[in-house]
């Protein structure tokens, strides 16, 4: 008889021996994932304040979503995938919808309705079907385009680049039609200490990333903020510990304040479509990326039992809207924990518990949220990591290459994520048909293309 002790209740629940891991490895992996994505506590409220959400309550909502979503992912899906509000979607809500002149209550309503749609199509397994209809090149162009968009926002917020002109003046009377266009942006004032701090912050963050340091983004934000404080361009934390859900950290100003009725209009369909596309593609990319790193993919490259993590991020999206934050889902930074050996949901539970603990230390990070020169470089760094997806685009295929370039250009040059995603989804099947390759257009691709066309026919492209 073997003297080896039997598995504990925790090991049995998370099927640890089956996946060749231990409690220690899972806890370490979960802590590593937390360190790599804790920057969201600072960056997400800083971005959403441009949509009108107050920073204090928004910070609590961000942390709460990450805690509840990650723990639910671990307990229900048993996967080492942490959950938090998505980068990209928050930028769309804060910046992409500005021209529509809608309030943050309506934007949260859109997140809620989109979350319900995610739940429905996940239960009916339509989400997996639609995701499979998007070609790999399209998926990579979406990721790269959003990365460029985030980098541009970071550069602009820090003052590294700034506006050169407002609008495009008409050519003078009597002159030729083709005149030299005004330059839309220009290099910023590098004599400004805050711009210099931003450049310093990016170099620190980039160096840490190059060295593979865990939590590089968060460390970069903190180091830059400290440098700003020492040079007289920042303030010290007013405290270290505070009770959440009270005073300035109460959720009352934003929780359950969403406008759902206003979302149920045809003119608002483009917003819902964009949130839907961005979120389900983000989740798909995370499942494939983390699954590959953990050796979880099957022989066809699919993530087994994908409906479970997809259902969790759908539920997290609904919860996020209710408490007052942006679209949420599985985070690609979970790959950091996987690289440390995480293979089960205990890692995600660990990450969630650490986020829950962070609720009591908000005063420590709050000063960072008003320092664009501190969090802006993190946006650029996230952009760097996302733009790497361009290498996986099939540039030798003229259809894929054209659709990808249209997506990238429309996202960045129109300063709107919705324009890029929908334009790419429309032109891809159209080019297939025009190139005599109509048989390659899938039913799902046609559905997505037709739905995207609604954006330009009935929506409010801007």
Describe the protein:
By secondary structure, this protein is mainly alpha-helical. The protein has one domain (19-163, 183-457). 60% of the residues lie in helices and 3% in strands. The protein has 19 helices and 4 strands. The protein has helices spanning 9-13, 23-37, 40-48, 55-77, 89-96, 104-123, 126-133, 136-158, 193-210, 216-230, 269-294, 307-323, 334-339, 345-358, 362-365, 372-387, 398-413, 417-434, 443-457, and strands at residues 83-85, 161-163, 185-187, 328-330. It has a two-stranded antiparallel sheet. A two-stranded antiparallel ribbon has the order 2-3. Helix 3 (40-48) crosses helix 4, helix 9 crosses helix 16 and helix 10 runs antiparallel to helix 16 (372-387). The longest helix is centred in the middle third of the chain and has 26 residues, at 269-294. The N and C termini lie far apart (72 Å). The model has no long low-confidence stretch (mean pLDDT 85).
Please render the helix and strand layout as text.
Layout: H1 9-13, H2 23-37, H3 40-48, H4 55-77, E1 83-85, H5 89-96, H6 104-123, H7 126-133, H8 136-158, E2 161-163, E3 185-187, H9 193-210, H10 216-230, H11 269-294, H12 307-323, E4 328-330, H13 334-339, H14 345-358, H15 362-365, H16 372-387, H17 398-413, H18 417-434, H19 443-457
Antiparallel strand pairs: 1-4, 2-3
Helix pairs in contact: 2-14, 3-4, 4-12, 4-14, 6-11, 6-12, 7-19, 8-16, 8-17, 8-18, 9-10, 9-16, 10-16, 11-18, 17-18, 18-19
